[in-house]
């Protein structure tokens, strides 16, 4: 049942590998729980009681409400699939409500502070240093996701039009414009990479120190290493740079729909969270500048 569901969301729903893996982990975790506490491994025999018991155990273990809700959503989708296939008659999650979560504004870097940092002499004069700089510059200059960066190939760069082609969630392609400075960095990096590793032009853009395709932990480690120097940041992850990209665009008056397309969001609701940060900036400007503030 689980295998059929995973194939369904992979090939019919076209979910990303990362998302499919998350669903698989959640389902295996639930299956392990009911096996230990209710002596059954058959997910088709799961009841509302079992689901609620699992949720309570997750909450007791200190897992955040947001993560618990994601796991509930995984179960909900799985049992909805089983009902549609006639493998179960009732969905045990149908009356299970998601937990209330506190809305958190996306963390982002201060514009001047981050710009000054990128222009400072913090990157080593080596292939590794130039690669690390490019990783930060691409995140900040395009707003792409970590998985999208890892999937970039040198052939995705259109030098004539100063754009890159990105393969996003559900295998949706989008074209993102890049600045001349970022284009120059990419071109210099590709030239050096091909010289150092002698790879063909269709190889992955970002590589590790051996010339193979980079992996998530490497990207996360690079971003955290450099963002640690920026005092205004509490969180230090690739996604923070995506938040920074979107927030700085909106602060400069960018159209919300345009930012939505650049980020690859399927709905405007996902992009609107960044308007809260922009409103905070507007309030700050008002407080400083208006005579009656």
UniProtKB/TrEMBL annotation:
Gene Ontology MF annotations: DNA binding; tyrosine-based site-specific recombinase activity
Pfam families associated with the record: Phage_int_SAM_1, Phage_integrase
Record bears the keyword rRNA-binding: no
A GO term from the CC aspect: cytoplasm
UniProt keyword annotation of Acyltransferase present: no
Main location: cytoplasm
Subcellular location: Cytoplasm
Residue intervals of the Tyr recombinase domain: 104-287
Record SUPFAM superfamilies: DNA breaking-rejoining enzymes
Highest taxon of the lineage: Bacteria
GO biological process, one term: chromosome segregation
Domain Core-binding (CB) residue range list: 1-83
Active site, UniProt feature: 145, 169, 239, 242, 265, 274
Keywords associated with the record: Cell cycle, Cell division, Chromosome partition, Cytoplasm, DNA integration, DNA recombination, DNA-binding
Family of the protein in this entry: Belongs to the 'phage' integrase family. XerC subfamily.
Quaternary structure (record): Forms a cyclic heterotetrameric complex composed of two molecules of XerC and two molecules of XerD.
Function of the protein: Site-specific tyrosine recombinase, which acts by catalyzing the cutting and rejoining of the recombining DNA molecules. The XerC-XerD complex is essential to convert dimers of the bacterial chromosome into monomers to permit their segregation at cell division. It also contributes to the segregational stability of plasmids.
Official protein name in the record: Tyrosine recombinase XerC
Taxonomic classification: Bacteria, Pseudomonadati, Bacteroidota, Cytophagia, Cytophagales
């Amino acid at each position: 049942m689980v295998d059929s569901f995973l194939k369904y969301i992979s090939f019919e729903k076209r979910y990303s590998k990362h998302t499919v893996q998350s669903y698989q982990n959640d389902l295996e975790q639930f299956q392990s729980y009911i096996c230990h506490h209710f002596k059954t491994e058959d997910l088709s025999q799961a009841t509302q009681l079992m689901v609620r018991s699992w949720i309570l155990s997750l909450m007791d273990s200190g897992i955040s409400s947001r993560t618990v809700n994601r796991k509930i959503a995984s179960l909900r989708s799985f049992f909805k699939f089983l009902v549609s296939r006639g493998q179960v008659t009732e969905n045990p999650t149908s009356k299970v409500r998601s937990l209330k979560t506190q809305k958190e504004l996306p963390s982002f870097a201060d514009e001047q502070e981050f710009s000054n940092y990128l222009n400072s002499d913090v990157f080593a004069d080596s292939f590794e240093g130039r690669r690390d700089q490019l990783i930060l510059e691409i995140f900040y200059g395009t707003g792409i996701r970590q998985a999208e960066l890892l999937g970039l190939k040198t052939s995705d760069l259109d030098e004539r039009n100063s754009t890159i082609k990105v393969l996003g969630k559900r295998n949706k392609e989008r074209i993102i414009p890049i600045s001349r400075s970022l284009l120059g960095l990419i071109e210099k990096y590709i030239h050096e990479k091909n010289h150092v590793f002698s790879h063909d032009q269709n190889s992955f853009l970002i590589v590790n120190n051996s010339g193979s395709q980079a992996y998530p932990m490497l990207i996360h480690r690079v971003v955290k290493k450099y963002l640690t120097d920026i005092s205004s940041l509490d969180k230090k992850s690739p996604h923070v740079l995506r938040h920074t990209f979107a927030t700085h665009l909106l602060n400069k008056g960018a159209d919300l729909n345009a930012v939505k397309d650049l980020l690859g969001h399927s709905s405007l609701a996902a992009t609107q969270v960044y308007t809260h940060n922009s409103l905070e900036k507007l309030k700050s400007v008002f407080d400083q500048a208006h005579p009656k503030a």
